[in-house]
Every structure is written in structure tokens, then in C-alpha cells.
Amino acid sequence: MNDRASRYGTRELAVLSLITPLLAGMVASGCSSMRYRTPGRGVAVTSLATSDFDIEERMLRQPAASFPARVAVVRVQASGYRSHGSISYGHGKYSVVTAGDMERDEHFERLEQLPMVADVARLNRLLIPPKLESDKELRLAAASLKADLLFVYTVDTIFRVDEHDVGPLRLITLGLLPINEAHVTSIVSAALFDVRTGYVYSVAESSARETQLANAWTSKDAIDSARRRAERRAFEGLLDEFTLAWADVVAEYAGQTDEPVVSKLGDAR
């Protein structure tokens, strides 16, 4: 009896001696495999206007785009932005994301189908310098594509657990207690710039929210799936808002005021 207990105790100690270093390693590494890092913040896209212009000089800016217009598109985020599936490019007052995971080809096809849009092109890293301080770097890149207008948008995604903000670039522990309610709120904002002068034609914004029990967040992919759903819904809402704003831009700056704006697909707006 004592020999059996002794043998059992020896086996137990042997098992503990194997798993203890593993547990210690997990603690020492902050249990990184058990946590999800929230993405960085967005930026105020209208704040990208060149900083060396005072108010009076900005007021003197005039629209100079010709219609039908070529439109360049770019997504901007805070400097050093990263998400579960994207890493931004550039540094300074902001950075750019050229391979986001919320955008789909059909989203940009919607922009191409708007009236008085000749073409839509997305800016990439080959055209954008690494140092980013104002809208000028983006307008220069758009000018390389002979674009008339620059559509700039940004995403700000906020994670909350029981109404407490998690904050950007923070770790969320997986498998929180089931009594906790988790929210992911995404806000997508955009501004339409004149490539030649920096004049702002229009702004638009939309938001979307995903809510579920935090115990559903049992993996990084589960949390990131909620983020992607919220961001995609917010982006699609932004396109709806921008479509309405574009109708006003066309009416005012392209001289189409005598008849309703109709898209190339024939949908009345």
C-alpha cells in the first residue's frame, strides 16, 4: 500500500516536472497565444490638410477637378497601425493601408459605377513615400495616376467589454467569463479632396456594431471575425453615405442640376 502510494506520488511528480516549465514559459511570455491584440486607431482625414496654410489661405482654395473625374482611393490610419491581418506602410502623422481585409473588389466597383466617374484607382506603396505629414504626399501620388479627385478614408475600431474600452494595441484575454458582454464598434470616415488644390468637396461617415457574449471569443480568429464584420458593415454604410454626397458634388460642380443623378447601372439616386 505504501509502495503503491509512493509509486503514484513519483509519477505525479514526474508529470509536474514536465508541465511546470511549460506553464512558466506561458506566464513569462504574457500568454501571448491566449490573447488578441486590438488594432491601432484611425486618423481625422480632414486634418491631413497641409499644416503650413493658415485659415485665410485655406479659404482661398478652389475646386479645380474636371468631370467626368478620375478618382484615386487610399486608406489612412494612425502611424504604426496594425491589425490581425494588416500592417500599415509609412510613418509620420499617419500611415496607409494598401491591403486591408474589410474591402472587396465590389466595393470599389460601386464607386466606378457612380455618375461622372471616369475611373477609380487605388494608390499603392510604389507611389507613396514613406514619410507622411499631410495630404500633399497623397495628392502627389494621385497626380501620378492623372487623378482629379482623391477619396481618403480611415477606420477606427473600438473594443469594449462590459462597457469598458479596451483601447488600441491592447491585449484581450481569450475565453472571458460568459457574464461579460463584448462589443466591437467600427467608425469609417472619408473625405474627398481635389488633387490639384487640396479643396475638400465632401465628407462622409458611417458606423456599425457587433455585440456578443465574451465567452464566444475563444480564439484570436473569433475576435477578429467580429472586427471584420463590424468594419465591413461600416465601410458599406460609408459607401451609401458617399453615394448621396457624390450626387450633391456632381450637381454643384459638374453642372448636372436639371435632372436627377442616375448611376451607370441605371439606379436612380
Structure report:
It is a single chain. By secondary structure, this protein is α/β, with parallel strands linked by helices. It has 2 domains: 1-30; 32-253, no CATH class. The chain is 31% helix and 26% strand. The chain has helices at 2-28, 55-59, 105-112, 135-144, 220-253; strands at 35-37, 69-77, 91-92, 95-97, 117-122, 131-132, 149-161, 164-165, 171-173, 181-194, 200-213. Strands 2, 4, 5, 7, 8, 10 and 11 form a 7-stranded mixed beta sheet that branches. Strands 1-9 form a two-stranded antiparallel ribbon. Residues 4-8, 10-31 and 256-269 have low confidence and may be disordered.
SSE pattern: HEHEEEHEEHEEEEEH
Counted by DSSP, the helix tally is: 5
Largest sheet: 7 strands, mixed
What structural class do you assign from the helix and strand content? Answer: alpha/beta
Backbone CA Rg? 25 Å
Helix content: 25-40%
- SS elements, strand count: 11
Overall morphology: elongated
SSE order and pairing:
Elements: H1 2-28, E1 35-37, H2 55-59, E2 69-77, E3 91-92, E4 95-97, H3 105-112, E5 117-122, E6 131-132, H4 135-144, E7 149-161, E8 164-165, E9 171-173, E10 181-194, E11 200-213, H5 220-253
Parallel strand pairs: 2-5, 2-7, 3-6
Antiparallel strand pairs: 1-9, 2-4, 7-8, 7-10, 10-11
In short:
By secondary structure, the protein is an alpha/beta fold. The protein is built from 5 helices and 11 strands.
